Amino acid sequence: MNSKRLKFFTAGFALLLAAQVLLPGRSSAAKVMEQLPKPEWSYTLPDGITFWGTIDTLQSKNRMFIPLVKTVTVAPSKTKSSGMLYASIDRINGSANWVYDYSDMANDKPFTANGFYSASNGYSYFYKMWGGKPYDLTVVDPNGKRKWTKTITGSYSPVVLDNGNIVIRTLVSGNVASRGITEYSQDGKQVRKLKLTGKWASGVIDVLPNGYVVHKELDTNRVSVYRSLDALTKPLAAYTAPKAVKYPDFQVYPLRGGSFLIKMRSSDTWLLFGYDANGTKKWVRPVNKMDRIDTTGNNYLIQSDNVYKLYSKDNQLLGKQQIGEAGDREWYCRITPSGEITVEKQYQWQERPAVVDPETFEGDIAKEDFYVLDPANLQIKYHLSTSWHDYETGHNYIYAGGGELYITRSYAPKTITKYMLK
After folding, report:
1. What pLDDT digit, counting tens, does each position of 199-215 carry?
2. CA–CA separation, 341 and 324 (whole Å)
C-alpha cells in the first residue's frame, strides 16, 4: 500500500459512498455520492448508559426506540448492570429525547423476563415479571409519561397490533384448558376478553400484528388462519399437510392488504403457499431448507446465501440481486421498519502494507459495506463502503427509509448520529 493510500485510510470518519462493482447477474442503479453529507445531529446518552441491540430498533413516524444497558457501582470494586430501560430518540432534530427506566437494581434477577414494544404512533409498551410473580404491563405515551400499568397473571409475550392495541395471551401454568386472550386499547380500556375452550384449549395460538389469528392444532398436520379475534368460528383458510409429512411446522406471514403466506417445513418437505385476502390458495412453490423468507409490503423476499429474489403476492419475480461473491454467507439482510431491505457485511480485513512504519502505522484496516435495496425491484439505492482502523471497526447501521441513516459504534456505543443520504 503506497503512502497516499495509507493517508486516505487514516482519515478517521471519512466515509465514502462508493459505486458498486457489478457481478454477473447483478442489476445496476446505485445512487452514488463521494462522501456522506454533514451529520444532521448527534445525541450522546447520559453517563453509565449505552445502546444495546440496535438491530432491534423500533420506529414510529417521528421517534425511534432503542434498548439500553446501564451499569451502576454497588460497591467499591463491584458493579451491576441492567437492560430494563430504553431510549426514545427524536428523529426530526435529535433534541426531544428521553430514557424510560423500569429496572429495580436491588431486586431484579439476572434472567428476569421482560421486553418492550412500540406502536406506530409513538406509544411504547413494556412488560416485566420475576420470581414467578404476575407480569406488570405498562404503557408509556410519546412524551415518556406512564399512562397505565396492569397486572396480568400467567402471560405470554404481548403482541402489539397495527392499530396500536395490545393483545395478551394467558395460560394458567399446568392447566392447558385454562386459556384466554385479552385485548387492551392504548388508553387502557379492555377491548375484549376471550376464554378459549374446545379445540382452542390445545395447540399453538398466534395473533399477528394485522389481527389475523393462527391456530396450529395439536397432534394434527393442520394449521388454520382466522381473519380476527371477532371471527373465530370459521377459518379464513386452512391447510392440512399430507399424512406422509411427519411433524410439520407452519409459519404464517401477513402481507399488506390481507393476503398472506404459509410456510410448511418438515424433515424433508419445505413448501410455501400463497393466499389472497379471501383465503383462497393461489399458488404453491418449493423452497430450500436453508432459504430465509421475509415480507415487505405486498411482496416477499427469499434469501439464499447472498442471493436475493423478490416476488409479488402473486408469485411473480420482481427482481434478483447478488451482493458480493457467489456463496458468501457473511452478509446480513434485514427488512427495516420502513419496509426497505438492507444488506451489510463488516470486519472485512484488508491486506497489511508490505512495509510498515511503526511511527505512522495506526493498525490494520477493515472495510464495512452497507446496501439499501428498493423493496419494489431490488435495485440498489445506496451503497455505503467505509474503511476503519482496527480500534475503530464495527458499527450499527439503522436505516429508517428515504435516505435517513443512523450510525453508532458496535462496542458499548453511547452516541448516535443521523445522516441524510442524497
Report:
1. 888 888 999 999 999 99
2. 16
How far apart, in Å, are the Cα atoms of 163 and each of 30, 185, 416? 35, 9, 29
Which residue in 191, 208, 198, 145 sits closest to 176, CA to CA?
198
Cα(23)–Cα(321) distance, integer angstroms: 10
Q: Which residue positions in the chain have pLDDT lower than 50?
A: 1-28, 173, 175
Q: CB count, 10 Å around CB of 238?
A: 16
Count Cβ neighbours within 10 Å for each residue of 304-342 and write b for 16 or more, e otherwise: ebbbbbbbbbeeeebbebbbbeeeeeebebebbbbebbb
Task: For residue 139, list its beta bridge partners.
Answer: 125, 148
User: Is residue 202 within 8 Å of residue 215, measured between CB atoms?
Assistant: no
Q: Give the integer Cα–Cα distance in Å for 59 and 257.
A: 21
Supply 389's cell numbers: 482502523
Residue with C-alpha cell 403482541? 159
